[in-house]
Amino acid sequence: MRSVALPDALPDGSRFIHIGLPKTGTTALQGALDRARPRLEELGAHNVGKGRHEMRVGQVAADGLAEFWQGSWEQRWQELARDFRTSTARCTFWSSESLSHAKGERVAYLADELGADTHVVVTLRPLAPLMVSQWQQWLRRRGVQSLEEWAASQFEAVSVGGEVSVDYIRFAPMLHRFSLRRIVEEWGPVFGEDKIVLVVPDARDRARTLRVFEHLMGVPEVLEAVPEGNASLPYPEAEMLRQFNRAYTDHDGDHATWMEAIGVLARIPLRDYTNTLTPQPIRAPRWVAERANEYAAAWNAAVEASGVTVVGDLAGLLVDPADYAEEVAVPTAVDVASAGRLMDVVFSAALRHASHRHEAAAVAPGATDLTAYGGRQLLGELGRRARRRVTGR
Amino acid sequence: MSHLAKSLLHVPDATGGMNAFAVPTWWASLEDERVTRDEDERPDVTVVHVDGLPHDRTLLVVGGVAELLTEPTLAGLESWVSEVRAIHAAAAAPVHLAVSLDEVTSLEQLLALAAGRRWPRFDVAAAAAHTRQPGADPVPPQSVPGGQDAARAYADALVAQVEVLLPPAWQTAADGAADATACISRALDTDPDVGPAAARVLRDACRAALAGLEADGVTVSGPRDALLWPVPAERGLVPIDVAADAALEVMLGVLERPVDLAADRPVVVPVAELPARALLARLGGGR
């Protein structure tokens, strides 16, 4: 392992991908990269992504797109990969935490598509608070377990040694996806351990990650912190969402409906709702912090034994369990006004979803009413189409 | 739905807060030949011959839980559940429990409830379109800023507004909004007969009782949250599971409505947008 306080600039003509990890300040970083895009281009640093983050494109690239989603992201991924591969900029980069979904052969595929000489940058965060954030994210995917139940199931799914004890096809268990050991073992042989850069955050200096990326790109201080706009739900509201998911599941609600109504249509309203609430960070209980430290320590050992570059102090990935309460009370009540606002979010999303479904049914074959048209009208329309086909107009 | 054979809907006379509408004068006022009564065989049941039900049903229309229990206690709940079970066991067809917070006033409404649909209907597509239309009359937001009293007053104000003659899209959107607001209003007891702890126990027991009835083969439709005993808010806070029940009901209240309209309402699409096979099928006499 090579340890540095700040990295050197990558050589001219270099390319790098930033693969997350999720919930490590990626949204803020991507916002800063997007806002500084014109200036970065002037300085020779080319961002192949559009906007802040093309999440679905990243998921397609990593083979991590849920079957629920349907769209034309494959084409955009091919376009983006071509731009990345063929760019003549002094420094070319793409940031998508979705890429951390990639595993095994898909990592090799990414090397084929993007170039095996690509550098891989990974931003990190201590595992204990990261797990709390992941639990919150999971609630937005219809999760029903409490924080402690969920944490216990994560620890059970993957051992400290890295053995995965649950079956999965596409989406690896969280502690496997986030394992630094796995990243070194799977990404190292493909891209080269010397091309992997792990960035440990500095709890005292939140802007430091921006400085790290400026150094990598070889540009002056042009990145500015951008409000993330994706605040976490306070604990009572997070619990309310969880109980809503539970009630929906108990009612035998189907996943596709939940995903479109709450996962998609309510995503922005839910974010706006969250931003109106008084922040109340959720803390894991001490046992979760202690268990998370066991994993983090084992991963750190794997990193130390590798040839990757670490920016910052790996010890910063451990937490002091004494800072975590023995027990954390789970809220059982929520502010009436807040409950009302969540209902408004749900109502609006359900209305839009029902409307979509209604429109889809309206245009489905067999759902249309043809009695409004006489035989002459129908023959005329068929004749017009036949003529168009013959004349090509 | 004409492919479904005629089914029999058995409607017991008003009993224990259920089927309050089902009295001889109401049936007589319908003057509908589908409604029959055999005073010799089943003097306390009216039978309606209907299309569209998958099988025969015994219908019990119920309102809020407070109207059903003789007293707000576990014994009161058990008494009501026993009565439903007894009807279910003795009836000619399985019991369907249709929750309706509106009084039954028409056969059309009754048949919609029997089919597991919600009443009143509203056009969800129009409501959604209205809420997205820039510059449209705004539908009041659904927040309940000051606690349960405000929620109730808010719902009352909305109900009053929708009685005014307004564009249909606004009205349908407002109908849905009022429905949503009423959910949390009815989950919160502003004039509690029992204390907070007892209310929670009763609510949990109601939830278990519904699950038990369903396990026995009773089906339930409509806003089932109304069958859960309301709890008082304390210092502006509401129990999280209660808020979640209300939010789910808000969602289902919207999602379960377009089904009402889809089967009955013809959808006319411009002929140029129809696939050729549909046109040919129509010319050949098909629908």
Task: Give a short synopsis of this structure.
The complex is a heterodimer of chains A (393) and B (287). Chain A is an alpha/beta fold and 393 residues long.
N-to-C span of chain A: 66 Å
Shape of chain B: globular
Number of strands of chain A: 8
CATH architecture of one domain in chain A: 3-Layer(aba) Sandwich
Low-pLDDT regions of chain A: none
Question: How large is the count of helical segments of chain A?
Answer: 16
Rg of chain B is: 21 Å
State the strand order across the main sheet of chain B.
2-3-1-4-5-6
Oligomer designation: heterodimer
Determine the mean pLDDT of chain A.
Answer: 90
Which structural category fits the helices and strands of chain B? alpha/beta
Number of DSSP strands of chain B?
Answer: 7
3D structure, described in words:
The complex is a heterodimer of chains A (393) and B (287). By secondary structure, chain A is α/β, with parallel strands linked by helices. Chain A has helices at residues 26-35, 37-42, 55-61, 73-86, 105-114, 127-139, 147-157, 174-177, 180-191, 208-217, 235-250, 255-265, 267-276, 286-304, 336-363, 375-391; strands spanning 2-4, 14-18, 45-47, 91-95, 119-123, 196-199, 309-311, 333-335. In chain A, 50% of the residues lie in helices and 8% in strands. In chain B, helix 2 links the parallel strand 4 (57-62) and strand 5. Chain B is of the alpha/beta class and 287 residues long. The two termini of chain B are 14 Å apart. Chain B has a 6-stranded mixed sheet with strand order 2-3-1-4-5-6, sandwiched between helices. Classes of the chains: A alpha/beta (393), B alpha/beta (287). The interface between A and B is large, with 56 and 65 residues. Strand 8 of chain A pairs antiparallel with strand 7 of chain B, so a sheet runs across the interface.
